[in-house]
Specification:
This protein has one domain: Ubiquitin Conjugating Enzyme (Roll). Helices cover about 30% and strands about 15% of the residues. The chain is built from four helices and four strands; from the N terminus they run αββββααα.
Length: about 160
């Protein structure tokens, strides 16, 4: 197994020992360099009650190069199926530090999701009401995705 694979295996173990609040992550069973994640929308935000599925694609050079980040579930903050621009994504490899982990990436992404940053690549502007509507519809959207259902069966009853 290469350096990236070894590091990602270690991160699987860390996430299982210390789960994150409102965030779940599972590697693709066929490709350890592709991790699916799901956020639960934080209370007192337009995303409350929503579940948001996305993907982290890790390069062969991980942890020395950052992942590409995508969001699949309609959410009103990030465009669907487009790379998301953050300081910890492959848009800004100069900002990446090899000490960053899947946990720090996902916590940062959820934090950015609840902030307004209209100029971000992959970002969108929508009203709170539109985002609340998408939050209500997110569970049904995710349940139609067979890959989501296979990776996150323990979340299906919560939606």
């Amino acid at each position: 197994m290469d350096v990236a694979g070894k590091r990602l295996q270690k991160e699987i173990q860390q996430l299982k020992k210390k789960p994150l609040d409102l965030i779940w992550a599972e590697p693709d069973p066929k490709n350890i360099k592709e991790w699916h994640y799901c956020f639960e929308g934080p209370k007192d935000t337009p995303y409350e009650g929503g579940f948001y599925h996305g993907l982290l694609k890790f390069p062969a050079e991980y942890p020395f190069k950052p992942p590409a980040i995508f969001m699949y579930t309609p959410n009103g903050r990030y465009k669907q199926n487009e790379r998301i621009c953050t300081s910890f994504s492959d848009f800004h490899p100069e900002s990446w530090q090899s000490t960053q982990t899947i946990s720090t990436v996902l916590v940062g992404l959820l934090s950015f999701m609840t902030e307004e940053c209209p100029n971000a690549i992959g970002g969108m502007q929508m009203t709170k009401m539109e985002r609340k509507k998408m939050a209500k519809e997110s569970g049904a959207f995710n349940k139609r995705n067979s890959q989501f259902c296979k990776l996150f069966p323990y979340l299906l009853e919560r939606m």
